[in-house]
């Protein structure tokens, strides 16, 4: 079932895009995924909007509004107690990127950096629980950490979210109560040192090669070859403003 009304603590629940061009990005992703965008006119929303698919919330979009919130796609993990989660992260060797910030009546967010400086957002929900549709074409499908130190991550994330590390020696499937919620793989040794570790957001599509062609027509680019994985056929991309994301077809249900 692809519709969601709530998320358990420790489960990735929302994704959003920070971009220097919200109008241009709205056009790009609308054409690529069939999304419609709506923006909150209230001043306290700071230009933040929501993407919808079939009338359901699937992602957010906003301008660059925080010095520690880089441009690009970001994953949010649901938590029940932000202060406690940030305390656990600090004790495990991470740091608070920015402190809890209430977002009108939607909920409260905070920024987190893990031991290798990979950036992740935390969400303590009120009225906004997260993505209302997942795991179907045009919707959020997976979050994946690319890191140079998987061993450090395998200590950090279980301490913060209670995740267990499954999978094999190369690919880690983060699990919460035996249900896969996210992934991790080591960054290739030939990746330049200035490229930081980080979380990649995956979107499901009907046919990744057709969607790749569409992304290129719209001004985006492909940054990896097509890969056949146990989860589906996938590739990495960037939009015209160089925000990175991945697309996958044949996705299996999870989280």
TrEMBL record:
Name of the molecule in the record: VOC family protein
Domain of life: Bacteria
Domain VOC, chain residue ranges per copy: 11-125, 139-250
């Amino acid at each position: 079932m692809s519709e969601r009304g709530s998320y358990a603590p420790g489960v990735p629940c929302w994704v959003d895009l920070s971009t220097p061009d919200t109008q241009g990005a709205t056009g790009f992703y609308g054409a690529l995924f069939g999304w419609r965008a709506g923006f909150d006119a209230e001043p306290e929303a700071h230009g933040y909007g929501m993407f919808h698919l079939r009338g359901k919330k699937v992602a957010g979009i906003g301008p660059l509004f925080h010095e520690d919130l880089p441009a690009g796609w970001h994953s949010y993990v649901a938590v029940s107690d932000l202060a406690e989660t940030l305390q656990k992260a600090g004790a495990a060797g991470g740091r608070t990127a920015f402190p809890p910030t209430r977002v009108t009546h939607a909920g409260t967010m905070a920024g987190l950096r893990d031991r290798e400086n990979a950036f992740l957002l935390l969400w303590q929900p009120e009225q906004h629980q997260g993505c209302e549709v997942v795991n179907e074409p045009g919707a959020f499908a997976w979050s994946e950490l690319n890191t140079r130190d998987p061993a450090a991550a395998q200590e950090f994330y279980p301490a913060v979210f209670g995740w267990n590390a499954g999978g094999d020696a190369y690919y880690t499937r983060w699990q919460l109560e035996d249900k896969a919620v996210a992934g991790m793989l080591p960054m290739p040794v030939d990746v330049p040192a200035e490229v930081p570790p980080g979380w990649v957001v995956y979107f499901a599509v009907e046919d990744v090669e057709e969607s790749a062609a569409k992304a290129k027509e719209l001004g985006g680019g492909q940054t990896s070859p097509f890969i056949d994985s146990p989860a589906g056929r996938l590739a990495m991309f960037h939009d015209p403003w160089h925000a990175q994301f991945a697309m996958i077809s044949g996705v299996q249900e999870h989280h």
